[in-house]
Amino acid sequence: MGTAVELNLFLSGVEKRAYAMAMVTVKNPQDALDIVQDVMLTLARKYAGKPHDQWPPLFYRILRNRITDFHRSSNIRRRLFGWLGPSLDGSEVDPLELAIGPDKDTPEHRLRMHGAGVGISTALARLPARQQQAFMLRAWEGMDVKTTASAMGCSTGSVKTHYSRAVHALREELQEFQDD
Amino acid sequence: MTETDPNLDNLAASAGARLRETELDVPAEVSQRLQASRRLAVARAESTTGEGRIVWPQFFGFAATAFAAFVLVVGVTLTMSTPDGAFPRLNDGEIAAAQEADFLQELEFVAWMVAMEDTDELPKSG
Q: Does residue B106 fall inside a structural domain?
């Protein structure tokens, strides 16, 4: 069947990127995998019949919504059960593990974490959500402004603003790529 | 709208290219899980858009037609069927209505007869 083959091709092209993007914000491999699987299933169930050129913005819009849902439910869980301890169900990540400390911010560690890419990923994680999305979709995914606006559910002007602010906020990390 | 420095734009493009390279380097177990998720999604799409899918408007059309035919058959059967093949039994109301109709017909007949007699009693011409 044509749609199944096309969908398989499309998903195989974006699945690792979507996982990496989810990892930037949720920081937990299992949560990132769950989110990407949910996005794939939602796209297949609801939008497989849509024209194929609409799949990329739809896919990234669903991804954004799932990540937002994840953060929302995490906040609620933290408020309700935070006083019980961080690792009650074993799913919580120790914040100290995520922090960039002297032993993690070493050249060896950076090399192990995919070189300069980790620097930009870490800096991306500190950006506001909309700036993150704009940078990821424009620079990482390579979408044009119009498609990015469709994926983010905002105007092209807003995309340009968010992207510009993101690039300015990341300029220090981006300088690393000047020497490459 | 905020303008972006072209130099920063180029650096962002380089960063994007680097991120695209690094994203491919995922652990084997993550890659396997992504493949499994993709297969599941494709199977879901096939079941959603494939030939095995039920087309609900058509399904409801067939169901409604079948139900109407069933109601019609049951209705006709119940109306026509009588014990031992006899004629349908009439209740008191139906009998009274039939008798009333006969009585009215008789009244009309009598009225017609009277009218005819009156006509006969008219003076004959000539």
A: no
Locate A124 and state its tokens: 């991306």
| Domain coverage including residue B45 | 10-51
Tell me, what's the ipTM?
0.73
Nearest Cα to A26, choosing from A108, A117, A138, A129? A129
* R_g over Cα of chain B: 44
Range of the domain at A26: 1-83
The reported pLDDT for the residue numbered A19 is 93
Query: Looking at this protein, which amino acid is placed at residue B56?
Result: W
pLDDT score, position B33:
93
Of the pLDDT bands very low, low, confident and very high (cuts 50, 70, 90), residue B125 is: low
Tokens for A114? Answer: 């995919």
Q: How far is A19 from chain B (nearest CA, A)?
A: 8
What Rg value do the Cα atoms of chain A yield, rounded?
A: 18
Question: Residue B38 contacts by C-beta under 8 Å, 6 or more apart in sequence?
Answer: A8, A11, A12, A15, A40
Which residues, including other chains, have CB under 8 Å from residue B85's CB and lie 6 or more apart? Answer: none
Could you give the angle at the alpha carbon of A21 between the alpha carbons of A19 and A26, nearest 5°? 85
Judging contacts by C-beta atoms under 8 Å, the chain B residues touching residue A115 are: 18, 22
Instruction: Please state the domain count of chain A.
Output: 2
Same domain, A53 and A120: no
Residue A99 domain-assigned (yes or no)? no
pTM check: above 0.80: no
Check A40 against B37: CB less than 8 A apart.
Answer: yes
Alpha carbons A176 and A120: distance in angstroms, whole number: 9
